[in-house]
Amino acid sequence: MPRTIIENIVIQEYKNQSFFEFCKYTTIRFFEILYFEKGTGTLKINGNTVTYAPNSIFVFIPDDVYIVNAETATSTVTIKFLKSFFRNTHIQNTTLPVNDWFRKIEEILHSESHQLREMQFESQHDKMHLTSLINMVAAEYNEKQTFDIFIIQNSLSVILHLIARNIQYINTDSIKKVKSSRIQQIINYIHANIYNSELLSTKNLAEKFYMADNYISEYFKKHTDVSLKKYIINYKLKLVETRLKYTDLQYSEIANELGFTDSSHLNKTFKTYKGTSLSAFKESLA
């Protein structure tokens, strides 16, 4: 049975199941981690079919729809962050690192390298650590009277960090299909440091990647068809859209977080690049 340990985070565990009902949380889920501890079968994800096996891990983002078709007895753990978890954060969940968790999930939201949502890992150590932590959260979940919120909170923080660092950041929509490890490194660096404008200056990026100040922008545009400055702004505005969709942050808070002078500067930039104001975009979501 599902259980809420932290408000608007749902943990579900199934043991040796041969049939899985459609997930009723799909329409209100913001992010989900699905771990197959045991069993084999297929997942139908957004109309595509992929197999699962023991120790498979999948992540799902808003609007993803999946159905589990078990071929052998299957045991799973799922951790679901509901959309409402990231709203009213100044009132609820005041002891939790909600904004840090949002940033980690956000990195996954804007990656398009995991079309079928199955996690791939740079090292088996990361996968082992992740499965151990998911099992730890499930174990605390089972201790219905004595669960330790400190263990759950810190485990969730590390789980999200491990997932985020194993997701490739490269965005295939905005980059030529040119295999360039240097370009990918630059983009990864931009995404990882998007909240620190000083690190994204042309001078710092040039030093970081051993290029001349006047060459790095030329190099970036050659391989992506977009200027370095425009890429950074466009990525920031993607993050603005995500915050407008899934949080109740004030415009001034979003502006401050993403390095805009104030809400007026943010609104002007958003309108220039997106053709609509912040308020109009927010209203369109209703």
From TrEMBL:
Query: What SMART domains does UniProt report for this protein, alphabetically?
Result: HTH_ARAC
- Give GO MF terms, alphabetically: DNA-binding transcription factor activity; sequence-specific DNA binding
Is Translocase tagged as a keyword?
A: no
Q: Does the keyword Transcription regulation apply?
A: yes
- Any idea where the HTH araC/xylS-type domain is? 184-284
InterPro entries with a match to the protein in the record: AraC-bd, Homeodomain-like_sf, HTH-like, HTH_AraC
Q: Which keywords does this chain's UniProt record carry?
A: DNA-binding, Transcription, Transcription regulation
The record's listing under PROSITE patterns reads: HTH_ARAC_FAMILY_2
Superkingdom of origin organism: Bacteria
What is the name of the protein in this document?
Answer: Helix-turn-helix domain-containing protein
Species name: Rasiella rasia
